[in-house]
Structure prediction request, 202 residues.
Amino acid sequence: MEGSAADSVRTRSSWLRCYRCWSQNLEVQLHYEGILKVDPATAEAVEPVEEVQEAVVQCLDCMHDQPHLSLAFYEEDGRRVSRIEAVDDRWERMVTGTPWVASCTVAVDGDDVESCSGPEAADSLAFAAFGDHGTREFFTHVRFHKHEEDGSIVIHMLIELYARSIEEATEVLEGGARGRLTITSLAEESRPPASGGDGPPH
Prediction:
């Protein structure tokens, strides 16, 4: 194998794995919704009027979503090819980092919370507090929330996230928070065992 190709394979093996258990047994769940115009002459459904496509990479060993990976589409030799790519600002921290558990509160505008009761409340409060981080990257547990007189909602949470240092964990929490963040504790935890006894990626 040529040197550059070998380097590419080694680099890919660093991030093409589950960030939680390091398994490389992954699958892509592709969800597609589209509105297609019907050609009256041929009866073919062509010319997309509207398309929505969402791809989620999931580990088949621990069943966790992989927010450090994304699906991209390319045209190669006249055919459409899909390929998994690493998310630059996220993959190294999540794959080589360790879990950190934070106890914190986030004060958000009450209008930003879609629902604060019922079965959707936890996801709604987590999204209001941390957006996409709160529903995909962080393991969130909403302990309780409190409505303030000024119309804001203070959300009390336990959060597990992955980072390489306490400084980085703090930066990620601060960068993800969609309201006023107060961190009351932040502690490093042990990484879950690797799937199949694999060691850490190099």
Remarks:
- The chain is about 25% helix and 45% strand.
